[in-house]
Amino acid sequence: MAQVTMTVNGKAASGTVEGRTLLSSFLRETLDLTGTHVGCDTSQCGACVVHVDGVAVKSCTMLAAEADGADVATIEGQAAPDGTLNTIQQAFQDHHGLQCGFCTPGMVMTTAALLKDNPKPSEQEIRVHLEGNICRCTGYHNIIKAIYAASGQDVAALGAD
Amino acid sequence: MPKDGEIKSGIGASSKRREDVRFLTGNGNYTDDINIRGQAYVFFLRSDVAHGTLNSVDTSAASAMPGVVQIFTGADFEAVGGIPCGWEVTDKHGQPMQEPKHPVLAHGKVRHVGEPIAAVVADSLEQARDAAEAIEVDISELPAVINMKDAFKEGATKVHDDLTSNLCYDWGFVEENKGAVEEAFKNAHHVTTLELVNNRLVANPMEPRVAIGDYARSDEQHTLYTTSQNPHVIRLLMGAFVLGIPEHKLRVVAPDVGGGFGTKIFHYQEEAFCTFAAKACNRPVKWTSSRSEAFMSDAHGRDHVTTIQLALDKDNNFTALRTDTLANMGAYLSTFASSVPTWLHGTLMAGNYKTPLIYVNVKAMFTNTVPVDAYRGAGRPEATYQIERVIDMAARELGADPVALRRQNYVTEFPYATPVAVEYDTGDYHATMDKLEEIADFTGFEARRKESEAKGKWRGLGINNYIEACGIAPSNLVGQLGARAGLYDAATVRVNATGSISVMVGAHSHGQGHETAFPQVVADMIGIDESQIDIVHGDTSKIPFGMGTYGSRSLAVCGSAMVRATEKIIAKAKKIAAHLLEASDTDIELKDGMFSVAGTDKSVAWGDVTLAAYVPHNYPLEEIEPGLEETAFYDPSNFTYPAGAYACEVEVDPDTGKVTIERFAAADDFGNVINPMIVSGQVHGGIAQGVGQALLEGCSYDEESGQLLTGSYMDYAMPRADDLPFYSVDHSCQTPCTHNPLGVKGCGEAGAIGSPPSVVNAVIDALNSGGKKVAHIDMPLTPDRVWNAINNA
After folding, report:
1. pTM above 0.90, yes or no
2. Residue among A76, A78, A89, A100 with most chain B CBs within 10 A, to mutate
3. Would you identify the CATH topology of the domain B488-634?
4. B278-303 in b/e burial notation, b at 16+ Cβ within 10 A?
5. How many CB pairs below 8 A link A and B?
6. For residue B740, what is the DSSP state?
7. What's residue B6's pLDDT?
8. ipTM of the complex
9. Which CATH number characterizes residue A110's domain?
10. Could you give the count of Cα atoms lying within 13 Å of B88 in the half-sphere of its Cβ?
11. Distance from B371 to chain A by nearest Cα, in Å?
């Protein structure tokens, strides 16, 4: 067992973990941050995406011990303290970019990483960037629109209904 | 008709989804997010062989491992019932289907890879998993029977020793028509024959299944938290048939559920186990499926092997259709497994066409595979795929235009009694095809084909119709057909003193947006703001006995119950208003939340009436009770029949066989639409799953060993964003359902039903445009299969 300490959504967090404890488990079980979801065990689905030191990572594929000392951002820290949705979250609601909501935290965190690196992505760049995030509900149509809108581009230009 | 977005609230408005806020902020409450103080964790030791005799399960060493609370084996469940099947199918000789016991934990034999053999309950999941590795299982492996044709052979290895064969049932429908159908084929001008496979799929909702059992000795109360589409169905099946727990001592909670697509309808062993073990261990017991477990324990879908034949006369009228199907049940009968290839499939074999004579034969087979049950569409995609592929093939053989051939044979007069026992109440198939021609831009296709050819690609256009039976289902009808439950639904409308409303519904929302769409209906009926109304679902201790969400039934059945309950509320409120206004209740009108006396300026507001109901100081107590709460149960008098026309355009790379979806259009008739935004979203998702089936997805077993080859997302191809295009969807063709109060038909499954044939038809069209005389390729149309078809043509 080892003690790990990290900053999560701007607050100090610590706990005792086994060497094999995954970051996703630490967030969900120890810190009770259950917005980070686990949808597969092969690092494909992306429901568990969080940011570690500003980089999008699949938290089911990183040990909690590896994140010792890191700055971690999860879905719980994305909205303003008064609950106001951030631009990406609001775009997902406006464009019906979610249905069951299970993949959504990972989608939002992946989108944040995309727009940081590529503030005005094309439709194709968005589709390729979502290669590691699976949604079973939406057929991606409205997710693409939401991300395009979140980047400040005119959704009408996509030619999608 | 108003355009999308023109209506701002109530019925027809694209109200934004209120549930999104919690999902977008990480505040959803999915079952795995629930932790109960003192809970233990269960890990299931699952069979790694497909078929074998279970000689012994030695748990002695494992029981001594750290943190182990208790280890259970099949012997612990001998006294309880098996997991029940909810539908008894009668075969063509009038005999009931063969129905083996489906034990909670394997006993005596294992019959598929993934079947649970033992369950370790421990203080932590890691301890449970570690201890499971120390269990010694002695299995004598037996030959596995995987392929249905092998399972059907004389002398085949039997999955169940106590059954006469691997045949669950041999179903003929309509048996009395068989002779006339054969006669029609003898007299046919042309017969098209197609052998096809409807590939086995895994539903794969993104949230894996979870079950938490809890038991309070103080009041003998069991609680099961579970990832279910229908908590009351689980309470009924598990309480009555498996564990013998009376309803008032069993609460089932299905909180936020991360997608279902059918596979979370069914009652599973893990639910029964956690409920049982919580009492046995006197601790809450939690199980969370891994994705790998999901692949080998969630019920799979489809898996039919079919020969279909279409007979036409010299004028290209369809004169008869017959189909022979082998349907895989897997190793045991899952909850609705038996109904899928029969009543949800055979009754749809008329499609959108007035074919006068139809005969359907289905042989359901047991194999050493995971049980197969309903997956989005359930039987109707299998019917649609056959019909729409064989029509396309007939058009190609006859040199007929595939659209014209379909149009010529459409049902055009309603109601229409099909030769397969259902009556379509309404529809307009020409209208949806007209709309499709417009939104899919048929006229521009040839130009686009030339552009593709200039790039060295072959372009194809595939179209199809579909019809489905939704709003499941009239209880008296399905009872005659073997259903062991009623299929009504229920809603309780509780108006609070200040006029806000809680609606408790039997339907369950796991992505469909009920929390937004259902209030739109009640708001419209009363004339108050949607935000005044909340929906409560997913907890048997709070909601009336409704049957849940599947078969595109929520609004058509549960929504109708909600309308009926709201009508009762309005009727009572009018009496209260009449008293307050000193008028006759027959003169009271309700508009925009105001009760007024017709022809006068006297009125009283909704909130004043509701307050009077709960503070009955000035109130006709001798005539009506205080309070304002009503329940209605609604049992539909018929199915609903959503229908539509779909078009897919593909490009095929002749060098690699890779298929790219270039365009996809769907023109649906869902009857009236409550929230167009949500309806479009349902169609998008359905199309993606249908395209997934057509191009990517295929659950595969090694036929020798019975090992599951597609056991994770590394080897089961789920559609990604870059596999799919934007879709053009339209639901402006509306022939409202004639028999439910909202005129709605259901939209949840249409996309998955309607899309696979158009994709395959498009690929066949593309290959033929490239000079390759390919008649058919089985799904999924992977590059490998398409390349081989091209190069073997």
Report:
1. yes
2. A100
3. Aldehyde Oxidoreductase; domain 4 (3.30.365)
4. bbbbebbbbbbbebbbbbbbbbbbbb
5. 191
6. S
7. 81
8. 0.98
9. 1.10.150.120
10. 12
11. 21
Cβ-based contacts of A74 with chain B (< 8 Å): 26
Using CB atoms within 10 Å of the CB of residue B190, give its burial: 0 to 12 exposed, 13 to 18 middle, 19+ buried: middle
Q: Which of B607, B615, B532, B622 is nearest to B577 (CA)?
A: B607
Neighbours of B162 (CB within 10 A): 8
Whether A123 and A149 map to the same domain: the answer is yes
Beta strand pairing call for B190-198 and B304-312? antiparallel
Report chain A residues whose CB lies below 8 A from the CB of B17. Answer: 93, 96, 98
The CATH number fitting domain B300-473+638-792, selected from 3.30.365.10, 3.40.640.10, 3.10.20.600, 3.30.450.20: 3.30.365.10
Q: Does A160 touch chain B (CB under 8 A)?
A: yes
pLDDT score of B1: 57
Low-confidence ranges of chain B (pLDDT < 50): none
In a domain, A105, yes or no: yes
Instruction: Give the residue carrying structure tokens 């398409």.
Output: B786
CATH topology assigned to domain B34-142+206-259+264-297: Aldehyde Oxidoreductase; domain 3 (3.90.1170)
Counting residues of chain A whose pLDDT is more than 90, the rounded percentage is: 98
Give residue A123's pLDDT.
Answer: 98
Calpha distance B513→B530 (Å, rounded): 14
Q: What is the 3-state secondary structure (H, E, C) of B322-353?
A: EEEEEEEEECCCCCCHHHCCCCCCHHHCCCCE
Would A161 be classed as within a structural domain?
no
CA distance B194 to B599: 67
Which residues on chain B are in Cβ contact (under 8 Å) with A99?
259, 511-513, 681, 685
- Residues A41, A62: one domain? yes
Contacts of B154 (CB under 8 A, 6+ apart): none
A98-141 tens-digit pLDDT: 999 999 999 999 999 999 999 999 999 999 999 999 999 999 99
Strands (E), B636-792: 643-652, 659-669, 727-730
Answer yes or no: are the C-beta atoms of B299 and B372 closer than 8 Å. yes
| Token digits of residue A135 | 């949604």
A158 touches chain B (CB under 8 A): yes
Residues contacting residue B676 through CB under 8 Å, at least 6 positions apart: B4, B5, B12, B14, B731
Nearest CA in chain A to B206: A39
Per DSSP, the residues of B33-87 read G---TT-EEEEEEE-SSSSEEEEEEE-HHHHTSTTEEEEEEGGGGTTSPPPPPSB
Residues of B in contact with A29 (CB under 8 A): 35
pLDDT > 90? residue A161: no
Pull the structure tokens for residue A151: 């980047």
